[in-house]
Design a protein that fits this description.
The protein is α/β, with parallel strands linked by helices. The protein has eleven helices and 14 strands. It has one domain: P-loop containing nucleotide triphosphate hydrolases (Rossmann fold). The chain has helices spanning about 5-10, 40-55, 70-75, 120-130, 150-160, 180-190, 220-225, 240-245, 250-255, 260-265, 275-280, and strands spanning about 25, 30-35, 60-65, 85, 90, 95, 100, 135-140, 140-145, 165-170, 195-200, 205, 210, 230-235. The structure holds adenosine-5'-triphosphate (ATP), magnesium ion and zinc ion.
């Protein structure tokens, strides 16, 4: 098996830590969506980016790494579906437009069951979602991260071949040290940050379309400069989009052209060389 460039960069030292990819997965790019704190819209950004990539014809999967608070299946209208097995492997569920999803939610009896798993079991679940899930050929696997920069996030970065990180923030984060947490984690893990998205950045006036910055003038450019990050997109507060996420209709209802710069940044990530070998 070819080692990835991350392992090579670390002198091979990270290799034993990395979870192995199975023979039925050919994942070309892994992009994680991270924030320094919870509730800022990581899942909404992950889902939206997946939809936009898929609309462009790419094969897309979402690994829901938020084991204790999964929100991806519901967004794609698969809240009551259960994952199936193929021999020893799990099969991701497939959305209306062909997006593959693996989530703890798909393994629970009832969507409302509380997830009371402990640390080692959570790490085991992440491993299952990578090593024991048959992803097939994917151009992009997006990883919806759990809130914050704790153990689960660490496990993901240590164990999966993450190529890039999209950092999601809210206007409030930009006046505190919350962005620094995400940036520090990315630095420590040696994974490049593709850029920063400001969610709930403004409200669009329903009458004239003007952007109303209800949290005051955005600090996004300033913070991006401080941490040397690329500004990707700014998303407005959009109650219709939140309702679509709740109703499981994000694929039908996401406005065209959402997150254009994030989409471009994802497309600019180079495909894993190891997977080129595997296909040959
Ligand atoms: N731009 C937006 N406009 C309106 N509602 C939004 C927007 N972004 C997120 N929301 C809503 O805010 C809530 C939190 O968003 P989301 O679940 O995406 O955040 P998260 O960062 O993934 O949270 P967690 O850390 O708990 O995983 C959801 O109900 C979502 O629909
Ligand atoms: Mg989430
Ligand atoms: Zn107006």
């Amino acid at each position: 098996m070819a080692t990835c460039e991350h392992a090579a960069a670390a002198g091979g030292q990270t290799a034993p830590m990395q979870f192995e990819e199975n023979n039925l997965s050919e994942v070309k790019r892994v992009i994680a969506v991270l924030s320094g704190k919870g509730g800022v819209g990581k899942s909404l950004v992950t889902g939206s980016l997946a939809v936009e990539l898929a609309r462009g014809g790419a094969k897309v999967g979402i690994l829901d790494a938020d084991i204790t608070g999964p929100s991806i299946p519901r967004m794609f209208g698969m809240g009551d579906r259960r994952a199936h097995g193929l021999g020893k492997l799990l099969l991701p569920e497939i959305s209306a437009t062909g997006i593959k999803v693996m989530s703890s939610n798909l393994l629970l009896q009832n969507e409302t069951d509380p997830v009371l798993w402990r640390g080692p079991i959570i790490a085991g679940a992440i491993k299952q979602f990578w090593s024991d899930t048959s992803w097939g050929p994917l151009d992009y696997l997006l990883v919806d991260m759990p809130p914050g920069t704790g153990d689960v996030a660490l496990t993901v970065f240590q164990s999966l071949p993450v190529d890039g990180i999209v950092v999601v923030t809210s206007p409030q984060d930009l006046v505190s040290m919350i962005v620094a947490k995400a940036v520090n984690m990315a630095d420590k893990m040696n994974v490049p940050i593709l850029g920063i998205v400001e969610n709930m950045s403004y409200v669009q006036c329903p009458d004239c379309g003007r952007a109303i910055e209800i949290f005051g003038e955005s600090k996004l450019d300033q913070v991006a400069e401080t941490y040397n990050l690329k500004v990707l997109d700014r998303l407005p507060i959009d109650p219709a989009l939140a309702a679509a996420c709740d109703a499981g209709t994000i694929e039908a209802d996401l406005p065209a052209g959402t997150l254009p710069l994030t989409l471009a940044a994802a497309r600019a990530v180079e495909a894993h060389e190891g997977d080129e070998d595997k296909q040959a």
